Amino acid sequence: MREGDQPTVINLFLDGWGRRYKDLPDGRRQVVSFFVPGDLCDLNIFILRQMDHSIGALTPLTIAEIPRSAFEEIIDRHPRITQALWWEALVAAATQREWTMSLGQRNAAERIGHLLCELFLRLRTVGLTNGTSCPFPLTQSVLGEATGLSLVHVNRTLQDYRAAGMIVLKQRELTIPDLRALMEASMFDANYLHLDHEGRHFDANI
């Protein structure tokens, strides 16, 4: 989906990774969020006459397209699902605020470490981690687009984390031997992800 396209459906990511991004006329790109399995893309998309940003795949994707009529029926007939969707929207907004904090205040090491912690915890929430490891298809270039860092800064930061034994990146897999240590190094507080949220009762018996 490209900026300027007319949105027609809500997309649910079933498998694979995607990104939301904005491009400048000269080709510079800012990634503003990542999608992993289980994520919904733009609940309020039907309000828009045209997309004001782009969404692209980072890996092969499997998505479910939810048309407007089906989505409106779900909302009308299942109020608990509606509440859960509101909760999801609030978490998405909180995550966007945290990304803004990273771009404005965190240094290179903190930005990279914070993003790695966030993605690992999001994947763990949907059962896609294996112990201290998780899939990690992001290139250094994409990491730079998400963190506002040059490729040189991204490479140097990852090498520093590797040398300190805090991460292992190998064959599109990320391993974090000591998650707490990486969280402390990047000043990561998971409260914005609301992993132990009061809305956890929305996860079942809907």
UniProtKB/TrEMBL annotation:
Residues 106-180 form the HTH crp-type domain. Keywords: DNA-binding, Kinase, Transcription, Transcription regulation, Transferase. InterPro entries: cNMP-bd_dom, cNMP-bd_dom_sf, HTH_CRP, RmlC-like_jellyroll, WH-like_DNA-bd_sf, WH_DNA-bd_sf. GO terms for biological process: regulation of DNA-templated transcription. One of its GO terms (molecular function) is kinase activity. Gene3D superfamilies: Jelly Rolls, Winged helix-like DNA-binding domain superfamily/Winged helix DNA-binding domain. PROSITE patterns: HTH_CRP_2. SUPFAM superfamilies: cAMP-binding domain-like, Winged helix' DNA-binding domain. This is cAMP-binding domain of CRP or a regulatory subunit of cAMP-dependent protein kinases.
